[in-house]
Amino acid sequence: MVHIGSEFYDMKQFLEGQSSLNETELALLGDIRGKSILHLQCHFGQDSLSLARMGAKVTGVDLSDKAIAKAQELNDTLGLDAHFICCDVYDLEQHIDESFDMIFTSYGVIGWLPDLQRWGKLLHTFLKPGGQFIMVEFHPVVWMFNRDFSKIEYDYFNTETIVEQSTGTYTDRNAPIAYEEVSWNHSLDEVFAGLLQNGLALTGFREYDFSHYNAFAGMIQTGDRKFVIGHLEHKIPMMYSVTAIKK
Length: 247
Fold this sequence. Notes:
It is built from six helices and eleven strands. The protein has one domain (about 10-245): Rossmann fold (3-Layer(aba) Sandwich), CATH 3.40.50. The chain has helices spanning about 10-15, 25-30, 45-55, 65-80, 115-125, 190-195, and strands at about 35-40, 55-60, 85, 100-105, 125-140, 160-165, 180-185, 200-210, 220-225, 225-230, 240-245.
């Protein structure tokens, strides 16, 4: 995996104890000691393991077998007790029969999911009554632009499946790899409907004019773990956060 050895994920600092979580999600999570957390689309587990370091009992889920194998390897190396499952999130009921105090997901996750009603039902299924859902995600406005943010190329609303031929990766734009990406842009209305129509009640929502990650072309740093598109400055929303509870 190109991502694991990249400067973007800074594995050396992570192994030495640095949390991969940002101040935005840490403020939303609060004290999670002793809580059971389901981490959806966990990639190779850095955030899952950062949650485990904070005292939570964590189950991480991702579609990639290589990512999950690396997550389990990191867990064993660090002597933590997180549990990892390789599956499509929509198939999770075939792999887990428990419920959780909290479900967490973040950054570049829901764009890989075609159906947010099905996603909302999944959240309701795996949350305990009164359980909390926390998500920090890139704003749908970001995904409207072409790669260099010079023009609007895609609809804000989920009107089509977006199929792109891509090279490189957000961790290394010059990486010698080529692949096809299939994704969906979900409006805020669609996100809220997926939650509200499936038994969750919103408890918080915020938009942010920066990204915690230097993950797009033409970004400049404006603070600690804070980046904006250079020529757009703070004029567009880059991220948003949502919190909700199961009724």
